[in-house]
């Protein structure tokens, strides 16, 4: 069979709309996930042991199970618990946030852990209060170290967002599958969809590398 | 909440789920074996002196790393037969898709590890009169494999979880079987919880192993 | 006639890391104007002594006074060490690895603690910081980040950071050990200048020539105790104790 991409021009708007939805899902889940991830990281360092345990189990569970099953679980099971239906948009955002938060809490934790003992000694020797130490020394350094990885996590969420097509969310993947089914031309459609994802994700991965180098050069951390 | 848990559905469906798990494990193990070897070869190619060897494989790595696995799976299932005339049963096709995906991620891990092999080690290899192939075999690979091991294991577990996506192309793995059971029994909560726990019960211990290996390597380096 | 009060008084300081006994009963008095150099074999507890003085380490037993006030007490029974945190307003410390804050500019490194712990108004802190930098010839680096400085410059900034807080006692823990040889002199010069201004200091160094130049007093620590204590000419030149003698011979490669 001949490969001909030209018919895709007719579906340009649909694909762009799908990409728009994918980006919207990604950005919302990314923003909420950062907040949730930071809270989780703090909970995992809590002085109350049960709080630490629950947070750890949460994180390990979301990291240790397929995202697809998390999506199904939230979409099909949450409504039974909550007693109301979730729109697939809500379910998609919720799932990606809960998952993203678990991943990003690990990033924050690694960032906090990587601050050397000498930095704490110096804070001590200068008589800085625990509050000043946390807000002026630990948090900024942890953030600087975490930013590139958080961005990578964001790219991960962008890719995982394709899974919400399984619960009928009309994002890029879903629209691609629909077009493929309707036209019977999977080669062109899936190649195009893959390229659209690539065109967004690839520059971002370069940005991550660039940021990493820049932070390393500027601050040597 | 008035929901009544009825876990005996799970007991009934257990053999079916185990059938699915078998497929999932098969997929994961074979894809990992492919990726551990192929990944190293790709890493060597990407580090080649020759632009013509480097470029296509660098592009391949980026393509696989920067697109969703789901797209890759659909692409393999729908496009490979048409484009290349390769017709495989669903399981081998799933293995091929996941194996190549993982190989690209492993290649990145190997590449970083190969670049970190100490210069003196390579010099020593030359000084001892090893051929280039022998140097790769006896000096580069052992170093790189050790250094990359934690990432390789982590990648392996990630693939175990990603393998659930083949359910979407009707490959009867654990995820697929779980979905069947959930729809037929009308017990999504129990079924999806059980399926999630099965995945977790396997990936969590392995992730501990990865953490342990990393600690040991760090300790050895320090 | 009023009695001169010792600056530092340590009595029976014991320290161990697990089962490893690092200090086994240090008794030490430091007088105002003393520039005390601590020498001794590695693992002899020199750095530990300074870290304890800064309140960075717990002690098993013993007490430490500064200007007649009790700041550190080790309670052996409870295993707890009571450290009065106002100690940190009196003592400043410079570490081997600079420990500047990498995310702050040089001037912010200097002013942060002054503003936050001394309640100094920001303009005053900036003013003082710039003056200190000028004295060290580093005023052009005020807006740079630590990563943009050489090791010697970083260490001078670290000294300035400690001086910002007007300490009564300065601790220098092997501050030139991590430096390239050609950068050592600029840091030592700053310390010698402080010595001229009668700044009391306690320092650990492996550089015996520098020790001889800066010390008003040298103690030789080995096996967790003070083996010998005296003026530099004696301890470094003609030690009384055979253990000190052996050590000095080894590091100077000469027979005394």
Automatic annotation (TrEMBL), chain A:
GO terms for biological process: amino acid transport. Pfam families: BPD_transp_1. Residues 19-208 form the ABC transmembrane type-1 domain. CDD domains: TM_PBP2 (cd06261). The keyword Zinc-finger does not apply. It comes from the Bacteria. Keywords: Amino-acid transport, Cell membrane, Membrane, Transmembrane, Transmembrane helix, Transport. PROSITE patterns: ABC_TM1 (PS50928). It is found in: Cell inner membrane; Cell membrane. Gene3D superfamilies: MetI-like. One of its GO terms (molecular function) is transmembrane transporter activity. GO terms for cellular component: ATP-binding cassette (ABC) transporter complex. It is a multi-pass membrane protein. The chain crosses the membrane at residues 25-43, 55-76, 88-108, 163-183, 189-208. The complex is composed of two ATP-binding proteins (GltL), two transmembrane proteins (GltJ and GltK) and a solute-binding protein (GltI). Belongs to the binding-protein-dependent transport system permease family. HisMQ subfamily. Part of the binding-protein-dependent transport system for glutamine; probably responsible for the translocation of the substrate across the membrane. NCBIfam families: HEQRo_perm_3TM. This is Glutamate/aspartate import permease protein GltK. It comes from Paracoccus solventivorans.
TrEMBL record, chain B:
It comes from the Bacteria. The keyword Transport applies. One of its GO terms (molecular function) is transmembrane transporter activity. Keywords: Amino-acid transport, Cell membrane, Membrane, Transmembrane, Transmembrane helix, Transport. Its main location: membrane. It is found in: Cell inner membrane; Cell membrane. The chain crosses the membrane at residues 23-47, 59-78, 84-105, 147-171, 191-213. InterPro entries: AA_ABC_transptr_permease_3TM, ArtM/GltK/GlnP/TcyL/YhdX-like, MetI-like, MetI-like_sf. One of its GO terms (cellular component) is ATP-binding cassette (ABC) transporter complex. It is a multi-pass membrane protein. Residues 21-210 form the ABC transmembrane type-1 domain. Gene3D superfamilies: MetI-like (1.10.3720.10). GO terms for biological process: amino acid transport. The keyword Chloroplast does not apply. Part of the binding-protein-dependent transport system for glutamine; probably responsible for the translocation of the substrate across the membrane. Belongs to the binding-protein-dependent transport system permease family. HisMQ subfamily. This is Amino acid ABC transporter membrane protein 1, PAAT family.
UniProtKB/TrEMBL annotation, chain C:
It is found in: Cell membrane. Keywords: Amino-acid transport, ATP-binding, Cell membrane, Membrane, Nucleotide-binding, Transport. Residues 8-248 form the ABC transporter domain. GO terms for molecular function: ABC-type amino acid transporter activity; ATP binding; ATP hydrolysis activity. The keyword Cytoplasm does not apply. Its main location: membrane. One of its GO terms (cellular component) is plasma membrane. It is a peripheral membrane protein. InterPro entries: AAA+_ATPase, ABC_ATPase_HisP-typ, ABC_transporter-like_ATP-bd, ABC_transporter-like_CS, MetN_ABC_transporter-like, P-loop_NTPase. Pfam families: ABC_tran. Belongs to the ABC transporter superfamily. This is Amino acid ABC transporter ATP-binding protein, PAAT family. It comes from Paracoccus solventivorans.
């Amino acid at each position: 069979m001949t490969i001909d991409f030209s018919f895709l021009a007719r579906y340009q708007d649909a694909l762009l709309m799908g990409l728009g939805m994918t980006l919207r899902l990604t950005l919302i889940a990314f923003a909420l996930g950062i907040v949730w991830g930071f809270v989780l990281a703090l909970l995992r360092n809590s002085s109350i042991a049960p709080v630490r345990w629950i947070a750890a189990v949460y994180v390990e569970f979301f990291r240790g199970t397929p995202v697809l099953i998390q999506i199904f679980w939230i979409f099909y099971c949450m409504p039974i618990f909550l007693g109301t239906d979730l729109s697939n948009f809500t379910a998609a955002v919720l799932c990606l946030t809960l998952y993203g938060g678990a991943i990003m809490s690990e990033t924050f934790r690694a960032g906090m852990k990587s601050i050397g003992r000498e930095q704490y000694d110096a804070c001590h020797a200068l008589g800085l209060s625990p509050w000043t130490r946390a807000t002026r020394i630990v948090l900024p350094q942890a953030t600087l170290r975490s930013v590139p990885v958080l961005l990578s996590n964001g790219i991960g969420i962008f890719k995982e967002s394709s899974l919400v097509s399984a619960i009928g969310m009309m994002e890029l993947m879903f629209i691609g599958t629909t077009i493929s089914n309707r036209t019977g031309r999977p080669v062109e459609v899936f190649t195009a969809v893959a390229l659209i994802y690539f065109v967004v994700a690839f520059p971002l991965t370069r940005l991550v590398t660039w940021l990493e180098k820049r932070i390393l050069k500027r601050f040597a951390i | 909440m008035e929901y009544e848990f009825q876990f005996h559905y799970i007991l009934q469906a257990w053999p079916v789920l185990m059938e699915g798990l078998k497929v999932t494990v098969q997929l994961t193990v074979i894809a990992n074996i492919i990726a551990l070897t192929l990944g190293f070869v790709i890493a060597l190619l990407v580090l080649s002196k020759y632009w013509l060897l480097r470029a296509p494989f660098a592009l391949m790595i980026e393509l696989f790393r920067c697109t969703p696995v789901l797209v890759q799976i659909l692409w393999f299932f729908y496009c490979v037969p048409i484009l290349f005339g390769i017709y495989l049963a669903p399981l081998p096709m799933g293995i091929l898709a996941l194996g190549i995906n993982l190989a690209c991620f492993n290649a990145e891990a190997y590449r970083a590890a190969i670049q970190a092999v100490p210069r003196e080690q390579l010099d020593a290899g030359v000084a001892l009169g090893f051929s280039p192939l022998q140097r790769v075999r006896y000096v580069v690979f052992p170093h790189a494999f050790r250094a990359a091991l934690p990432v390789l294991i982590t990648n392996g577990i990630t693939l175990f979880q990603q393998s659930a996506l083949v359910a979407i192309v009707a490959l009867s793995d654990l995820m697929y079987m779980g979905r069947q059971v959930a729809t037929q029994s009308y017990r999504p909560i129990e079924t999806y919880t059980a399926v999630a726990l099965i995945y977790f019960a396997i990936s969590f211990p392995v992730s501990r192993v990865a953490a342990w290996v990393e600690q040991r390597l760090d300790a050895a380096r320090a | 006639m009023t009695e001169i009060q010792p600056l530092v008084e340590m009595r029976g300081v014991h320290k161990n890391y697990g089962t490893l006994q690092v200090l086994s009963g240090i008794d030490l008095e430091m007088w105002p104007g003393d520039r005390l150099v601590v020498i001794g074999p590695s693992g002899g507890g020199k750095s530990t002594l300074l870290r304890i003085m800064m309140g960075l380490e717990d002690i098993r037993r013993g007490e430490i006074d500064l200007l007649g006030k009790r700041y550190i007490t080790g309670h052996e029974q409870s295993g707890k060490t009571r450290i009065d945190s106002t100690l940190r307003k009196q003592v400043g410390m410079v570490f081997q690895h600079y420990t500047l804050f990498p995310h702050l500019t040089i001037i912010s490194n200097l002013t942060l603690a002054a503003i936050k712990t001394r309640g100094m108004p920001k303009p005053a802190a900036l003013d003082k910081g710039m003056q200190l930098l000028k004295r060290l010839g580093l005023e052009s680096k005020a807006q740079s980040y630590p990563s943009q400085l050489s090791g010697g410059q970083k260490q001078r900034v670290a000294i300035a950071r400690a001086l910002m807080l007007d300490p009564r006692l300065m601790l220098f823990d092997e501050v030139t050990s991590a430096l390239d040889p050609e950068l050592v002199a600029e840091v030592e010069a700053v310390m010698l200048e402080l010595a001229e201004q009668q700044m009391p200091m306690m320092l650990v160094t492996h550089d015996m020539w520098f020790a001889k130049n800066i010390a008003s007093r040298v103690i030789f620590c080995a096996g967790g105790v003070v083996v010998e204590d005296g003026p530099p000419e004696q301890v470094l030149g003609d030690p009384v104790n055979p253990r000190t003698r052996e050590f000095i011979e080894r590091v100077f490669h000469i027979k005394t």
